[in-house]
Amino acid sequence: MSASFTSKWSIAGRSLLGSLSNNLLGAVKTTHEVIPRLHYNSIFSQQQRTFIQMRTNLKVVDNSGAKRVMCIQALKGRRGARLGDTIIASVKEAQPRGKVKKGEVVYGVVVRAAMQRGRCDGSEIKFDDNAVVIVNKQGEPIGTRVFGPVPHELRKKKHLKILTLAEHIA
Amino acid sequence: MRLEKCWFCSSTIYPGHGIQFVRNDAKIFRFCRSKCHKNFKMKRNPRKLKWTKAYRRLHGKDMTQDSTFELERKRNRPERYDRNVTESTLKAIKKIDKIRVAREARHHAMRMKGKKAIEQQAAAKELEQSIHLVKAPAALQEDPSLTLPKMKIKVSQSQMEDRMEE
């Protein structure tokens, strides 16, 4: 039985590994790092985008004072945070006179992620970069403005304040 | 639910298909499949790729301006649901589709109009020039009618006899 299982795995392995929803073979931890990139010719844009995890640098898109933060913990998700999730981050770069200072530990909501996120109608959405809005523990944004587009997903996660401040909802 | 158009190839994107890419200037690019998405990432210009609608429209292969395209224009005001309007819209869609297809066929026919004549001329020329590929030159010398398709030449009886003697 194990022999048949391994043969099935080897035949269908490449196609299965290619898809994101790969939980059949529970041994595979994440689909992204493990994929053998055999058939890609290294064209500059063949990047596999992944979750937002520890050490991920994110851009801050509000006027709270911080410029860049580094994620130190994704609050939900074993593999990392995605679009719309909250993270704990450490401020790496900040504007001189702002509400947050460099070295502070803050909470943030991911408003743009380069990794595609599936929507309930079956389509997928992705953004150009990883961006975060700094919030307090209750989930309210510290800043008063949000720059750039934000996704609909925030409505489900009850980050309505961010949606009202946004200039464009994707 | 809205049927979108692929930014790259201009085909319709049905629900459940494709990827939306939102750029930081809030411009949304929708792709119907990964082929279009990958070409976009390679920064290819759809107007230069022969299989896209943009190329075909630009180079006059497909109809560009027509009144049947007015129905498909994007309208941003949501309509209040009215059963009669819905019914008449569905009927109109079918009819307009038929008309559009007929017009496209006509456009194609117009485009291909002079083709047969050109092909015939080219074939005749080729026959004249390259007959040596088909028949050996010795055979050509014997019987002059092997060179060209039979043409009626008015020859007097005496000239025919002269030729036969040669």
Automatic annotation (TrEMBL), chain A:
One GO cellular component term, please give it: mitochondrial large ribosomal subunit
Single GO term (MF):
large ribosomal subunit rRNA binding
Identify the InterPro entries for this entry: Ribosomal_uL14 (IPR000218), Ribosomal_uL14_bac-type (IPR005745), Ribosomal_uL14_CS (IPR019972), Ribosomal_uL14_sf (IPR036853)
Q: In the record, which residues are listed under signal peptide?
A: none
Per the record's keyword annotation, is Ribonucleoprotein included, yes or no? yes
Listed A to Z, the keywords are: Ribonucleoprotein, Ribosomal protein, RNA-binding, rRNA-binding
Q: Which Pfam families match?
A: Ribosomal_L14 (PF00238)
Query: What Gene Ontology biological process does one annotation of this record name?
Result: translation
SMART domains hit by this protein: Ribosomal_L14
Superkingdom, natural source: Eukaryota
The UniProt family comment states: Belongs to the universal ribosomal protein uL14 family.
Q: What is this protein called?
A: 50S ribosomal protein L14, chloroplastic
Encoding gene per record:
LOC103710523
TrEMBL record, chain B:
Q: Which GO terms describe its biological process?
A: ribosomal large subunit biogenesis
The keyword Nucleus appears for this protein: yes
The record's section on InterPro entries has: L24e/L24_sf, Ribosomal_eL24, Ribosomal_eL24-rel_N, Ribosomal_eL24_CS, TRASH_dom
CDD domains hit by this protein: Ribosomal_L24e_L24
Out of the domains of life, which is the source? Answer: Eukaryota
Where does the record say this protein resides? Answer: Nucleus
Recorded protein name is: Probable ribosome biogenesis protein RLP24
Species, as recorded: Phoenix dactylifera
